[in-house]
Structures are given as C-alpha cells and as structure tokens.
Amino acid sequence: MQEKKTTNPDDFLDVFSVPARGRLVALDPGTKRVGVAVSDELQFTVRPLKTIERGSWKKLLLQIKEILAELDAVGLVLGLPLETDGSESPMSLEARRLARNFSLSLDLPVRLHDERVTSYEARGRLWREGVSEKDLRKRIDSEAAALILQDFIDFRNQKLRDRDRAAG
Question: Which numeric CATH code is attached to 19-167?
Fold first, then answer.
C-alpha cells in the first residue's frame, strides 16, 4: 500500500508565512538534547535560552508548548541538518518528521532552516569566550539554536527586501 503524503516538505521552507514581528523560537534538535533560542519581539536580537534533554515525543511537545506560550511566540524554526553538499542525512529526515509533528500539534508557523556547520560555529564561539569544556557541552545546543534563528531572520529579511525591490 502506498503511503500518502500529508504535507509538502517545501512548505516548511516558506519564510514569508512567519510574522516579521513577535518572538520566534528556534530548536536545534539532536538525538539526546534539543537546544532552544528566542528572538526579541522586533526580531533584532536572539539569545540562547536553554537545552532540553530529549525524551518521548509527548514530553518534548509539552516542553516546547510551554516555552512557546510563556514567550508568546509567533513562530517556531527548526534546524535542518543537511550534509555539506546540501544532500539529506538521516538527521534531516528526523528534523522534517519533527517539523511535521510540530506543525500538526501547534497553532503557529513551523519552519525548517539550513543549519549546516552551526554546531561547529557555536563551539568556536564558546571557545573564544573561554567557556570550559564541561560548560560547553551544556551550552552548545542552545548556542547553535541561536545561530540558526539569527540566520533564519537574516535570510527572511533579505528575501523580504528582494521581494519589495522586485515589486517596484
């Protein structure tokens, strides 16, 4: 029996459906931990928020719902871990699965954003700050989520400027 597709993965890449004002939350999903970051209401700045230990889907969903409600967030961005050549990886499929599940469970836009090398960049940033190896392990996932969110906001803003220029 052929499995029906319920969503088009490309829908998760549409940056225009995410409000340009209001807090956005980003997740850097891993197999053991999920990094969380948040933007300010004007989406000028982002900051790492926390790291969540990954458990069951239901537990993760409840934790994310709580964070989104507490922050009055208007959108959720998940890192999409592609290979360096842009191809999909097993973790890409997992991120797409999570995005689909979140989109079915939440009443706000859920988007995926390319997160290639954000963990390496986050590690480098924390090293430059002099963070110890022990603290680095605690902070790297939320720092990577902050990089994903900042890149998403910058990318979306550039697309909006390009669209406005093309419109005249």
Answer: 3.30.420.140
